[in-house]
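Backbone-to-sequence.
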């Protein structure tokens, strides 16, 4: 852990010019100077008129499954861009930030037909495994419960890793001490089998907890080298991008942002809260793409071959489409980006919420 911390300290020293603190909701964002590079372009609206789309996952045939947070609906969007409801998840409790959140498709979907959902219920947040038969979702099974739920800080992102294990991001449900409690599933990143059991090789073999000390993680992505990256909402000062290591403690609530303390891992990138509220993350060709809610922009963060962020952070679409919730890499290499203007905190247009297609953004790092 010490070597990881030493690397973080060195990286933090490089990022000082990018970091500014904000303790007020009214402090305006300070734009980061743009880096000369090709600019990604929105080329199409995949879908419109959606109700707070939260999770997007692709099937092997290229169709996308999309969750709506407040309605509890699961939608399928085919190659013809037709939107079709395939299920409503009974028992979904949508209050504040809770509801039907993340979705992930089994890496062996062709044989098992499994889809995984993160949903808030009256008894807390749960992870469901369902079967998609091409028409509807059946065989609902709770594979992991006991995840704290509240109107805020529910986490919710699901992501399969290159190891075939299911990773889940949780929040501390507005109860900060839970993030440091190893017995609680709140404020953690979990690593599980497809049955919801602790994955082999976890820091504690009888626990699904992979890392702790998180406030509210809503973005997970793996790069080509198998490294896991997570976006995290700060409180008043800074939001974070973290590289996640097994057993790592990321400091909340003792630390917001960087601390330089041995027992905690510092973030590799931070933003003033007015510029980010980072939610979904996608990876593509040595770049991480981070969708920002309050910041109303898409961030690109270049990643060097060593796996250390090179801090070439560049913003796109600032203020053009409102709040941005989820960004994913589509099978054709484009990015799909969802707006979140109907989540109670945005200013929706008649077309919101939308899924936007961004032309293949595989850009060389400057």
């Amino acid at each position: 852990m010490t070597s990881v911390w030493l690397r973080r300290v060195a990286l933090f020293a490089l990022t000082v010019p990018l970091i500014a603190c904000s303790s007020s909701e009214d402090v305006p964002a300070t734009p980061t100077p743009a880096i000369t590079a090709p600019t990604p372009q929105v080329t199409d609206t995949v879908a419109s008129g959606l109700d707070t789309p939260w999770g997007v996952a692709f099937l092997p045939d290229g169709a996308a499954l999309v969750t709506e947070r407040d309605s509890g609906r699961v939608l399928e969007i085919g190659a013809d861009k037709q939107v079709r409801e395939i299920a409503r998840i009974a028992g979904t409790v949508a209050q504040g930030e809770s509801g039907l959140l993340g979705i992930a498709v089994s890496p062996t979907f062709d044989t098992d037909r499994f889809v995984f959902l993160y949903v808030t219920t009256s008894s807390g947040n749960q992870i469901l495994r369902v079967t998609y038969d091409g028409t509807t979702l059946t065989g609902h099974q709770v594979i992991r419960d006991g995840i704290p739920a509240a109107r805020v800080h529910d986490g919710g992102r699901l992501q399969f890793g290159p190891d075939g294990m299911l990773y889940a991001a949780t929040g501390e449900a507005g109860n900060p001490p839970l993030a440091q409690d190893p017995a609680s599933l709140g404020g953690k990143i979990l690593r599980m089998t497809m049955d919801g059991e602790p994955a082999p090789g976890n820091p504690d073999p009888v626990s699904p907890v992979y890392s702790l000390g998180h406030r509210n993680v809503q973005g997970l992505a793996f790069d080509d080298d198998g490294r896991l990256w997570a976006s995290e909402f700060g409180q008043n000062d800074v939001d974070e991008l973290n590289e996640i290591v097994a057993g790592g403690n990321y400091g909340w609530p003792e630390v917001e942002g960087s601390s330089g303390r041995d027992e905690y891992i510092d973030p590799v990138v931070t933003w003033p809260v007015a510029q980010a509220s980072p939610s979904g993350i996608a990876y593509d060709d040595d770049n991480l793409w981070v969708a920002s809610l309050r910041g109303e922009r898409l961030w690109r963060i270049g990643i060097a071959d060593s796996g250390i962020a090179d801090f070439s952070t560049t913003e796109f679409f600032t203020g053009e489409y409102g709040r941005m919730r989820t960004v994913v890499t589509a099978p054709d290499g484009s990015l799909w980006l969802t707006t979140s203007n109907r989540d109670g905190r945005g200013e929706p247009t008649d077309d919101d919420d939308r899924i936007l297609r961004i032309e293949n953004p595989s850009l060389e790092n400057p």
